[in-house]
Amino acid sequence: MADAEQYFASSPAAASSPGVVRLDLGDVRLELATDAGVFSRTRLDPGTSVLLHKAPVPTVDGDYLDLGCGYGPIALTLAARRPRARVWGVDVNERAVELVRRNAAAAGLSNVTACLPDEVPADLRFTTVWSNPPIRIGKPALHELLRTWLPRLTPDGAAHLVVQRNLGADSLAGWLTGEGYGVERVASQKGFRVLRVSRAG
Ligand SMILES: C[S@@+](CC[C@H](N)C(=O)[O-])C[C@H]1O[C@@H](n2cnc3c(N)ncnc32)[C@H](O)[C@@H]1O
Fold first, then answer.
1. What is the dihedral of CA 181, 185, 186, 192, to 10 degrees?
2. Model pTM greater than 0.85?
3. Which residues line ligand 1 (CB under 6 A)?
């Protein structure tokens, strides 16, 4: 089965096949362990790359969320850029969660907590959400996911989401606006949009 079909399984059926992705953003250099059954395990996903290069580095600390963290390129970049923030890497894929734990430990990033969605304390609020969201779970499931997590932004908090134009970035922006969020397109590159989503509107 191809990665795209199974990367959001809770326990990937694919036999382990360890790999490494090297991340070099200039300010952040990381070597990240990957594995079969995890999203984009052979290279940094181009959408994730656009997000990491184009979204502004957050200026406030607090709790951050990487929603759908995969093996952790977004969570670990945020943690390296803002050492005083506590970054939550959340994924339904247990193999991905375990990889984030290993990758954070190997990089000496003690400000990362990787866990399954249900393991995040219910009263936690996030100043920052960065996500390459799982568009392939389908629109109803994606909307439910965003309805679960975006209300947990602090009043001044903001989310940055990277979405492929061909996979519905503009319709997602319209839906978010209809849900009452402020939505701004902060970057557009290589067919991807980076959307800034705020509660304040
Ligand atoms: C497009 S991938 C991005 C992975 C990683 N952030 C990256 O940039 O390489 C989306 C991720 O969302 C995860 N996912 C799918 N459904 C989810 C859910 N309901 N809650 C949390 N994560 C989910 C998938 O397992 C996958 O790892």
1. 120
2. yes
3. 7-8, 39-40, 45, 48, 68-70, 73-74, 90-93, 96, 117, 132, 134, 137, 145
